[in-house]
Amino acid sequence: MTFPLFEQDLEKPGDEPELDDFVSTTKKSSGRLEQEIDAAAEALIAEEHRRQDAARKELVSYGIFLFAFMFVVLAWRDTGVNYAMRNALQVNILEEDFPLEAAHFQKNYFDIANGEEFFTYMKLVFVDQIGLADGGIVAGYNRIIGGIRLRQLRVGDGSCTVPSSYNKYPDLGCYAPWEKVGRNNNQPFGPDGRWKASEGNPMAKNVEGQLGSYPSGGFILDFKLDYNDFTMALKELEANEWIDQGTRVVFVELLIYNLNVNMFQLTQIIVEFSAGGLAYPWVRFLPLQMQESEGFWTGNMVAIMQLVYAFYIMLFTMKFFAELQASRDATDPPSILNFFKSGWNVMDFLIISLAYVFAILLMLYQSDPTATQFNLSVGEYVDMFPVAEYAEMITQINAMACLLVFWKMLKYFNLSTRFAIMSNTLTGALPNIATFLLMFAIVFVAYAAMAMLLYGHALPQYSTFGRTMITLFLVTLGDFDYQELMTVTQTFTPVYFFSFIIIVFFVMLNMFIGIIAESYASENAKPKVSLGSEMASFLQSVKDGIVQPIEAAYKAGMEIGEKLRKEEEAFRKRIESAKKRAATGIAMADVFREAELLGLAAQVTTLWDVPINSFEDYTLEEKLQEYQIAINQTKAAISTIEEAGFDNGTQKFSVELEYMADLTRELNELVAGTEVAIKEANKLRKNDEDLTKEEGNPLLEPMEIEV
Fold this sequence. Notes:
Elements: H1 18-76, H2 79-94, H3 100-103, H4 115-129, E1 137-138, E2 142-144, E3 147-154, H5 178-181, E4 197-198, E5 207-208, E6 213-214, E7 218-224, H6 227-239, E8 247-258, E9 263-273, E10 279-288, H7 296-329, H8 343-367, H9 369-372, H10 385-407, H11 409-413, H12 417-455, H13 465-476, H14 482-488, H15 493-524, H16 531-594, H17 598-608, H18 620-643, H19 654-687, H20 689-692
Antiparallel strand pairs: 1-2, 2-8, 3-7, 3-8, 4-7, 5-6, 8-9, 9-10
Helix pairs in contact: 1-7, 1-10, 1-16, 4-6, 7-8, 8-10, 12-13, 12-15, 16-17, 16-18, 18-19
């Protein structure tokens, strides 16, 4: 291997140092890598911008879908009109007080306590408030359609088990609570078994009451809208004990229509009877609109919005299954589980599912023969509850879909960092929230069990475990009556109540708030940048970590090369000067020899250090100095490359590093050889030292000699 800065290669014009090749290669590699990273950054940022643009367009499209969805949902039921009609019926029919001669104190339907008071309400309040004498006109605006239905469900004697030692009281009978039986006793009852059970509508849903779930059917009595016939029937029912120990629930069912708002109210006045003899009165209203009103906004516009809604649902369905298939194909083995790991995909699935359930229920609702063949002039009671329950289920489905549809808006708002903070706060807090909820559930269930055992026998809100849970939840919101609890037990109430408030309200709820607050603070502390900026920042850090060290190595290599080139130029100049000096000395020596002044010739030769036989001995010290400088510069170059993050194991720079290592070894050999040569030359010079230092020697003065 040869080295361009030393030895004979110095005198070959046109040769370039091999370090230039290394610098050039490094520069090209650095520039190419930087260009690749910049291109990748631009591509990723462009992709992010494209995705955000697509998301914005999708947001606009989703906004159109949301508008159509809300128009269809709100047009399905006019909640304001529904409430006004319901409230009017409740105030006029149910909240009217009993006559004072019958109750002796202010009392209405919701204060009924037993079967006797039920018949008192029906005879003295109900028949008048429904306008039965006028053909069933309620409050002057609402009309009863068809007739009135009374229906009851019963349990039979012997439906419960009694210890044998208690059988000495056989006349009392044994009638179990409804929740233990769960079905109607179809045995006829009354004088000569005149009241017989009937099958209910198989399409009707069970009515969920306070004491149980009640099916359709039972012992049914239908009455026309005749004041005298209905009042006489009520007296007969009361006299023949139509309500007795076996009665568990009584329904009074009406179909009421308001022409002004084109709305029906299916009304069920319900009184449940517990096995202990206490009555639980309540009421159920189901609104129903069977035909759309005329007009653009309530007719044509609704149809247009329904078509838009259906179009978007089909579009979302195709997109959903396309993404599902793509996710399935991307996994090995094929699986759809990864697709449903995303909460947004689960939400899309629920929205689409609810939309198709809505469509199915709507078809069942519109095709029900009871609704399609209904006539307002019908003269007997018509059971419209299955149709109204379809309408109610549609409303409930739409309510759930409405919640999910609006929640999905957060997916698009998360494109903004500030909106993303909120969702990221909940997402980041989920592990801690899950742990907290487990601990909270254990404590809450423990207190619910304690409260049910302490107060369930005396207070209705603690009578079942479900009611107790709801009551305790309300207590955490500040809804409680401490004095009511004290009337049951003064010993344990302070222990129960204050420990619950301290542990659940002051400690655990504040822990929950602290978890959310900590997660929010962590999210809020993050830089407020967009995803595109975050990507650009990441790529810049990659560039800084890779390109900058290469640029540093390149710059260091350029500096080393420039320094070596300058030293090379200076060395060339010194060589030229030495050649001229040697030529001058040789010419002087030749002149003295021709004059046979051999002593002077020897002095000139020694003084000018001119080799007579070879010129190489002249530059030993200078060569030694240059070799040492080259060694230092080579070591500096190796160190610079290694500090830039590259070592001997890096394939890209292994050739350059090997070259530098070989250069260092050969320079060390040259230094060692030169030092030996200098020592030998010094010995030779020492012999002539006295001669060259004689005082007054004219040869020590500058001389000009023509050659």
